[in-house]
């Protein structure tokens, strides 16, 4: 499918559920993606991690179907339902045969609307979440990532804390806390359903109406305003993990919101800094020429609020200080000078060339449409994206770099 081929239809049901449909006929299959505009951003202070916990158990039974009945309903159709919670999303997604789409939509509607959160499954999933928290705490990469986010935003900020919570907060989450989260935040006004594949849009709309049309709830609570990042000064945290032969460095800044008009300039800047080729300038310097990193790259997480730009590197413990000094050098140089004409042209060519890959499967189209809806980008964003990237100038990328990339403002975790 070409990057300009989307012709998605958008319908808003009377209860606020948004339906996005896109028909494709390359195969007799359908991708279904239901996203609720909630997540760890709505975790209460005393129950950090409850959105993640709810995602672990919401598909473990409903008021009309047991855990075993739900599992059998999906298994019989060869379907793996994925449920997740992120900072601003609570999602259920799967792929199925086109002939099963209507019955699968009914199952997903039952799960999201009428979960019963059985105590035995809560106990089982609690152990799984606890194991994951302990595993992350023993991982140099995960530990560095968590530390740098806390340095940038503060440990209680939605962008500064772990989505899974802590062992202490997990112990405080009981069934009632999960029920309360679901009742308060999993609401039709916050739901966007994307259906992409070989199904008539009219039939998709009828199925969505049957499954979600009579879903009602109390009005959503007012949205809390995201606080600013904790600090802009250089700061550093080190955590020793005995027995590890690799040190992981996370080096970051509070970046921009996805709604920022400078987003495409920042996207190009980040590509040049730590993604193009084998890791952009960072990869060329630290990994290829100096040979002191197992990996190095940067990632820009523009979100509802100003998400971070984080540089990540895996190095020998003996090379930590050299690696940080090299990151300082590359960050400082780009912040002062921006990018060259050739770097800009190469990044544009790469990013524009990657647009078809963003839309090459039903699942990717469904995810793309979710992003379009979440950030109000417009249903023609796929057709406009290449032009938006092509229009970015060297001066705009230089200004983006100058506004963010300064070693004396970096948060560094090892």
List the main descriptive attributes of the protein structure presented here.
414 residues, 45% helix, 11 strands, 5-stranded mixed sheet, 6-stranded mixed sheet, 15 helices, single chain, globular, alpha+beta
Question: How is this structure best described in words?
Answer:
The chain has 15 helices and 11 strands. Helix content is 45%, strand content 16%. The protein has a 6-stranded mixed beta sheet with strand order 1-2-6-3-5-4, with helices on both faces. A 5-stranded mixed beta sheet has the order 7-11-8-10-9, with helices on both faces. The model has no long low-confidence stretch (mean pLDDT 96). By secondary structure, it is an alpha+beta fold. The protein has helices at 50-57, 67-75, 101-113, 119-137, 140-153, 167-172, 175-185, 201-212, 263-274, 276-289, 320-337, 341-358, 362-374, 381-390, 394-404; strands at residues 9-12, 18-23, 29-36, 82-85, 90-97, 191-197, 235-237, 247-254, 293-300, 308-315, 411-413. The radius of gyration is 22 Å and the shape is globular.
